[in-house]
From TrEMBL:
InterPro entries recorded: EthD_dom (IPR009799)
Species of the source: Neoarthrinium moseri
Signal peptide: none
Entry similarity comment: Belongs to the tpcK family.
GO molecular function: oxidoreductase activity
Pfam families for this protein: EthD (PF07110)
Domain annotation EthD: ranges: 18-99
Protein name: EthD domain-containing protein
């Protein structure tokens, strides 16, 4: 069996601008921003790019299930999966990518956005157990391998914390 490679994930959470309905926000983020960004991400070796929408109806579903965790109230979480930070640094310097992010500033409350950088470990894929040995042990790389990272060049920054281009 081949050795598993570490996959990194950058996830950002965003709230829509207060003057937009959920539908208006969704139509822009999914219909324009997501589609155009995906075309650019594919050029830079991003393994996966996806959005998770957290609408009032989804929060109501969670409430009805009495999930005991504090529920995040951001409108969308955007996830990028990649093998190394160089892909993300190169992507951030792309002029078309920068223009799309400046274009979306009126749609989001950038000062309420958050981000996390993580590595991913998959144990169930398409309903099947994966990356678990016949002895029931994880086949994931060691903590030392997963957590060992080299500092990267800074990503391009094209707006301030208040969302000004």
């Amino acid at each position: 069996m081949s050795k598993l490679e570490r996959v990194l994930r950058l996830a950002g959470t965003y709230r829509r601008s207060e003057n937009l309905s959920e539908k208006q926000f969704y139509e822009y983020i999914s219909g324009r921003h997501g589609v155009e960004c995906a075309k650019i991400h594919a050029k830079y070796g991003v393994l996966k790019y996806q959005m998770a929408f957290n609408t009032a109806s989804m929060r109501a579903l969670a409430d009805s299930m009495r999930i005991s965790y504090r529920m995040d109230d951001h409108d969308v979480e955007i996830e990028y999966y990649f093998k190394d930070a160089a892909a993300l640094v190169a992507l951030s310097a792309d002029k078309d990518f920068q223009a799309l992010h400046i274009e979306c500033l009126p749609y989001v409350q950038i000062n309420k956005s958050t981000a996390t950088m993580t590595w991913i470990e998959v144990y169930v894929d398409n309903g099947e157990l994966v990356n678990i040995s016949s002895e029931g042990k994880s086949l994931q790389p060691s903590f030392e391998e997963q957590s060992s990272v080299e500092p990267a060049l800074p990503v391009a920054n094209y707006h301030d914390d208040a969302g000004n281009a």
